Amino acid sequence: MDVQIRGLCHSFGEKQIFDRFDLTLPDGGLYGLTAPSGRGKTTLLRIIMGLLQPDAGAVTQGLQFSAVFQNDRLLPGRTPVEQLLFVRGGKRDREDCRLFLSGILPADSLEQPVEELSGGMQRRVAIARALWADSDCVLMDEPFTGLDEDTLRHTADFILANRQGRTLLLSTHQREQLSEYPFEWLTL
Amino acid sequence: MKPAKSMQPLVRGLLVALFWLGVWQALSMLAAKPVLFASPLDTVKALLRLLPTKDFWAAAATSLGRISLGFFLGLLIGLALGIAAFRFSLVRTLLSPLLTLVKTVPVASFIILILVWFGSGPLAVIVSLLIVLPQIYTSTLAGLGSADRELLEMAKLFRVSPGRTAWRIYRPALSPYLLGTCASALGMSWKAGIAAEVIGTPLHSIGEQMYLSKIYMDTAELFAWTATVILLSVGFEKLVLALLRKAAK
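The joint structure predicted for all components is written out below.
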């Protein structure tokens, strides 16, 4: 199912962020969203996910989303494996989970509480969680924040390899570093 | 030679205990009448006299059983009502006047009413329950309300089941509140429970034995029973808090 936005209007106080904004993201596409800070990237993602009610306009209903939020939102005191099992699966899926995570994190970090991991590693746990969860559409808000260039490429490869045909929309400031990837770029 | 570092707290603790025993001994010597103020030695003698008797163990076991039953019932009911009130605002509104009543009515009024309605048997159970329940209820509401909004939003977006959300987000938020409240409620349930027993004098209870000590002006025995209550209360508190901490992990 496509993600469709029609006649979106939204403002914060006096500041109008969207004024009759339209957007269609055909199903299964790979989209990059870029804009200067404060133009409403996070607001748009939150409206698509249904977490923020717009002032006016219509957004496609009935899609199941998974997401990387602006902050990681990981369960305190839990390991990367437990973060993934929280959104999908049970004890039997532990090994699958470990295997999945080992594509993006060192093996010795998988059973450590997330507080003991670096900021970049925590970010990658949040990315892996969004891809591991059952969803029709994956939204990522600045997923590469805090990652060095090599890790960024490795993470981008991991994202593309594991999106499994789902629509992927990610917002980023790092468009240049992703130029070799087949994103369709949208600018606000 | 200086004591090892690990010994220092122990030595300090012993010195503090010795100091207060000295104060106690001095006060008993000032009073000059064991009937008014028994010395530490008289108290230990009274305790040693009580220890081999069946009545001592029966009273200690009965009071421990009643007060702990009241505490656990208060914990369970307070927790259940707190969860229901957090989930449904109507329950919270309905319970509000009742909980205010339980919190503000003097314990003595409850004790008299319970004696009239149910007799002295379940007195300590009900009083202990009434002391614990409102505290647990309030702390459950506060603990659940403190759950991280962003984590809850994440769980909602990922369509995580309510059970899993409760276990992984609400339980860790609730635990510190509940542990803190239990630590104070445990001591208060013992104080109120024993006070109720002294007034209601149910058979084979510490309260009844304390009341008899008063009748016979046996201060040493009264102190011995008080020491028993302190030991039981502290032991019970440590055991329950250890169990709760284990459950919270």
